[in-house]
Write a structure and sequence with these properties.
Layout: H1 4-39, H2 43-71, H3 73-91, H4 97-111, H5 114-125, H6 131-183, H7 187-197, H8 206-210, H9 213-242, H10 248-254, H11 256-275, H12 280-300, H13 305-333, H14 339-367, H15 373-391, H16 396-409
Helix pairs in contact: 1-5, 1-6, 1-9, 2-3, 2-4, 2-5, 2-14, 3-4, 3-5, 3-6, 5-14, 6-10, 6-11, 6-13, 9-13, 9-14, 9-15, 11-13, 12-13, 12-15
Length: 410
């Protein structure tokens, strides 16, 4: 077993990498205002561009998880950071809509292996009772980045331009890749590779995972909750600018409020999930989705920006619980040997939502002459679907996979 000090050091490095990965994504939501003007994009073209990253990201989820299980999570982790850093830098060189879509698609391919590989590392080095907390720490980087990225994005765009901004962020990624190569050492990666090459390959393969009802419920839940999440994240700056009339500075500062709510929600969720009796978490997750659905309606019907931001902050708080709940179920109910593949399968749903939702919102807004009301109703519908998916979670098959893995290793 890896020492507690080593575990925490590796978790800190995963936190750092995940923070950069989220920054790469979040700054695009602010840069898109300048990119739209420079490249003269329509609402539907803007939606297509915002979705292009998620097409590559979703496509790489299952292969990324399988590669982490097959060849070792450290190798996939480093390769992922190197590749996404290259295409983040190249984003600044895009000259047309087509070139930008291709670069962002390849950026998504590069980043797609990171979460399955990092999730496998957590499942391998952390005890079961600490995995929700560890996952919440890693994913909290998203909330922290969401807290300061509005202000940072606006500052960087105004002072260096969106093209130089992406080049700088890509260079930071190269530094993080070096830190991973230098400091993350996982002996189990090499032993896992030897095991998979030999006759001890576990029976809990991709085919068996795909026959597990638990994973299909998780995949649907991932898709629906991330449809809400990415629908809000990708289009919120544009909505607040064009519909609510906010300037870039006001927009940046106001979006730190839901960012702070997300950060609080993630840390509290990780602690609570490790304390809850098994089965209780899906009830609380379902109730959280009810709150999200109701407050999404209050958001777009709010009479003032103040009330809109208030509702958005509460939505962010409850979204956080569900977003931490889903990977926790994977890490606690699947054997570590297939944690990467399992996470890749269910996270495919989340990233398909990231591909479909921004593009769909773009077409909806254009079809309704700039109105976002129908887009909000679509997000409300996804929150309702998530309720059903969470209530249908069945842990029995996951326990069977764990028992098979234990028997194979005995």
């Amino acid at each position: 077993m890896v020492s507690a000090r080593t575990r925490n050091w590796i978790l800190a490095l995963l936190f750092l990498g995940w923070a950069l990965g989220n920054l790469d994504r979040y700054v695009m939501n602010y840069a898109i205002l300048s990119i739209t003007e420079d490249l003269q994009l329509s609402a539907s073209s803007t939606g297509l561009l915002l979705s292009s990253f998620f097409a590559g990201y979703a496509l790489m989820q299952m292969p990324g998880g399988w590669l982490a299980d097959r060849f070792g999570s450290r190798k996939v982790l480093i390769a992922s950071v190197v590749m996404w850093s290259i295409f983040t830098g190249l984003t600044g060189a895009a000259w047309s809509l087509a070139s930008m879509i291709l670069i962002r698609f390849l950026f998504g391919i590069g980043e797609g292996g990171f979460q399955p590989a990092s999730s496998k590392i957590i499942a391998t080095i952390f005890p079961v009772k600490e995995r929700s907390r560890a996952m919440s720490v890693m994913l909290s980087s998203s909330a922290i980045v969401g807290l300061f990225s509005p202000i940072l994005s606006v500052w960087m765009i105004q002072n260096m331009g969106w093209r130089t901004m992406f080049v700088v962020i890509g260079a930071v990624g190269a530094v993080i890749a070096f830190l991973y190569w230098r400091h993350i050492k996982l002996p189990q990666d090499e032993s896992a590779t030897n095991t998979m090459n030999g006759s001890e390959q576990p029976k809990s393969s991709v085919s068996l995972l795909l026959k597990t009802p638990l994973l299909w419920s998780l995949l649907i839940a991932y898709f629906s909750i991330y449809a809400v999440n990415w629908g809000l994240v990708t289009w919120m700056p544009t909505y607040l600018s064009k519909v609510r009339g906010l300037d870039m500075i006001s927009l940046g500062w106001l979006q730190t409020i839901p960012g702070f709510a997300t950060l609080v929600g993630i840390y509290v969720s990780g602690y609570v999930l490790d304390k809850l009796p098994k089965g209780r978490e899906k009830i609380i997750g379902s109730l959280s989705c009810v709150v999200v659905a109701v407050l999404l309606y209050f958001m777009f019907t709010a009479s003032s920006v103040t009330m809109f931001i208030t509702y958005q902050a509460i939505v962010s708080l409850f979204l956080s619980f569900v977003i931490i709940l889903l990977p926790s179920v994977v890490l606690k109910n699947l054997p570590a040997a297939v944690a990467g593949t399992g996470m890749g399968i269910v996270n495919t749903g989340g990233q398909l939502a990231g591909f479909i939702t921004p593009m769909a919102i773009g077409f909806i807004v254009e079809a309704f002459n700039g109105s976002f009301d129908a887009a909000f109703w679509m997000l409300i519908g996804f929150a309702v679907i998530c309720i059903g998916a969470l209530l249908s979670l069945n842990y029995e098959k996951g326990e069977l996979l764990q028992q098979n893995a234990d028997s194979a290793s005995a």
